[in-house]
Amino acid sequence: MSVGGGLFAGAEILEVVDPGASLPARRAAGTAGRLAAQLGATVHRTGPDDPDAPAFYRAGKRTAADEVVADPVAWAAERPSRILLLAPGPGGDDPGPTEAINVVEVIGDAWHNEATLFAASGLADLFGDPDRAPLVPSGHWASVTVGYAVLGALASAKALAVRGGSDTITVDGVDALRWVNWKAPAMAWAGTPITREGSTSPWPAVECLDGHVAFVYTDRDWEAIVEMVDDDRLRHDRFANRRDRRAHQGDFLDVVRSWAADKSRSELDDLFHRHAVPGTAVLGPSELIDDVTLRHRRALTTERVGGVDVPSPVVPLRVRAEPGRPPSAEPGGTPVPLPLSGVRVLDLGVLTAGAGTSSLLADLGAEVIKVESRTKPDMFRFWTGGDDSPLFHFSNRSKLGVDIDLKDPAGRAAFLDLVATADAVIENYRRGVLERLELDFDTLRSVNPRIVLASVTGQGLTGPRAGHTTFGSTLEASSGLSALTAYDDGTPTISGANLNFPDQTVCLFAGAVITSAITASRSTGAGHHLDISQRDVAVYACGPVLDQLANGHDPTPWRLRRSAPGRWVAVGDDGTTNVEALDGAGVLAACRAGGSSAVVEAPDGSLVKGFPFTFAHRRLTISGPAPAIGADNDLVLTSSRQRS
């Protein structure tokens, strides 16, 4: 597999960043430009280098020529492959009429910073202890996450250009992060609000001999935990079922803390892996460069910048590309309603990482078909108890639903009939599942040579921990995020199931690269297998911190202050603007009152996850609520047989 696969090859991007734009907007544009360059685009930058800015944001880019800077719109109008990437400041220069070119702009108030973005989006409310101040991770996690949304907008612009269209696509930093934080407004809307759990979380950071580990598990792991810890207290009747374990959580965790106290992180990490429990060691940013899995995947390299060796993240994507049948006709020439209009995507995704990615592709115009069976449904349907979870409905709207048992020969044959008519398949199963089902990339290519298979996994398809089950909170611990989210005593914090931050951010990145891969395969006939590691994506967001540490600077600790009992505010970069740290109900109210794109109404009037960016001349819509299992069998399976 190659790194990046050149999925942005042929695109030219001019990054125009106004010095008056907010730091997060400038950094988000810089992140997206860097990623596009690593994916094969030619990226030009304007303006002098900021000596205080991490080199992370400049890597891989060219300095724009004077004539390009003088008239960026004229430059972009010369070729359809050219895109303007703007971070405008308040009252900044108008670039001129942009109706005939593709423009991506990232916006935000000039006083925005990491703390105000985490506060306004509600993300801060999910980090820390419930009776203490909310936490904001040190570093640039909000900026880089918005940068992933900007990359998705760039991929959309590139897809439009190939197909004869143009538009201005806007990424609002607060809205993009509220999109990431969709669980909080979803649960507030359902009447069961969530907030930060911190030390009371079922998934705590547990102290050990040389640091901490994230103790992450599900109910199905209980027998493995009892065997791993091997303490008779856990075999007591009060831990016999989920409800009782939750009621006696403090007693259970006391046993776990005692068990972990005399062991090293390495010992505990090996035990987690051996017993298939999704816990892991908490790593600090400086420890990432020597991590065995990251070294295997070559997720980090070292660059010499200003006489200093700086650990630098590689684009978090590995691609196997195989030539196929050339398309009968080029897709360009006729403008399309949306970037992925006419595209068919098969969604094997479960929970967030897979299903959230495919919902973003549905927003961009794709027909997304959710493939489940009554014997193997998406667990999100039952995540909050019962069989009607608001989390499933929020993240699976605008999809069709089919009931196909992939373990049954007839079901497998029906799925391959669908593959023959599709552009992409998305999966985030445990490693080895597709192979056991005989639905690996080579099998899919045998029926559709230009298929895109996107494998969204915890730690990638290869490596010493590739088979280890993970959740987003596991990856927070192993990517440096947890170590950078702490009170003054240094105890790391994980967000828990209420957020699982890397599960959300990977959807933005994966949506971008899948859009680009579909665009490429439709143009060339080549099939692509995308290896997207959630951990690699999270580690990439640690890049600015690695840069700072290599240059002898500790990342900025962000702090919120109390404004009233139970109320907390973040102070803007102007030193005077206070932004309240919203909870889920506050985010929901703000979205409904302010015309936000992050939470919108489905046709049936229910509230669902919205969009991380918007188009000036194309309206993104929700086509329908989340489907019941098999709701569209007749429509989808009949039409597929006819098409194939």
Put simply, the count of helices is: 23
Just name the CATH architecture of the domain at 316-541 and 623-643.
Answer: 3-Layer(aba) Sandwich
> What is CATH's topology name of the domain at 316-541 and 623-643?
Rossmann fold
Mean pLDDT: 92
The coarse overall form would be: globular
Strand content: 15-25%
The H-level CATH homologous superfamily of the domain at 316-541 and 623-643, spelled out, is: Crotonobetainyl-coa:carnitine coa-transferase, domain 1
Helix content: 25-40%
Low-confidence stretches: none
Distance between the termini: 30 Å
What is the CATH C-level name of the domain at 316-541 and 623-643? Alpha Beta
Largest sheet: 8 strands, mixed
Structural class: alpha/beta
DSSP, total strands: 25
Rg is 24 Å
Describe this structure in words.
A hairpin with a 2-residue loop joins strand 20 (561-564) and strand 21 (567-571). This protein is globular. The protein has 23 helices and 25 strands. It starts with a strand and ends with a helix. With 644 residues, the protein is an alpha/beta fold.
Give a quick summary of the entry.
34% of the residues lie in helices and 17% in strands.
Descriptive key words:
about 650 residues; Rossmann fold; 7-stranded mixed beta sheet
Protein topology:
Layout: E1 2-3, E2 12-17, H1 23-38, E3 42-45, E4 62-63, H2 66-70, H3 72-77, E5 82-87, E6 102-107, H4 114-121, H5 141-162, E7 168-172, H6 173-180, H7 183-189, E8 205-208, E9 211-214, H8 222-229, H9 242-247, H10 249-260, H11 265-274, E10 280-281, H12 292-297, E11 300-305, E12 308-313, E13 318-322, E14 344-347, H13 353-363, E15 367-372, H14 390-395, E16 399-403, H15 409-421, E17 424-427, H16 433-436, H17 441-447, E18 452-457, H18 472-478, H19 501-524, E19 527-533, H20 534-540, H21 543-550, E20 561-564, E21 567-571, E22 578-580, H22 584-593, E23 599-601, E24 607-609, E25 614-615, H23 633-643
Parallel strand pairs: 2-3, 2-5, 3-4, 5-6, 6-7, 14-15, 14-17, 15-16, 17-18, 18-19
Antiparallel strand pairs: 1-13, 7-25, 8-9, 9-10, 11-12, 13-19, 20-21, 21-22, 23-24
Helix pairs in contact: 1-5, 4-6, 5-19, 7-22, 13-19, 15-23, 18-19, 18-20, 19-20
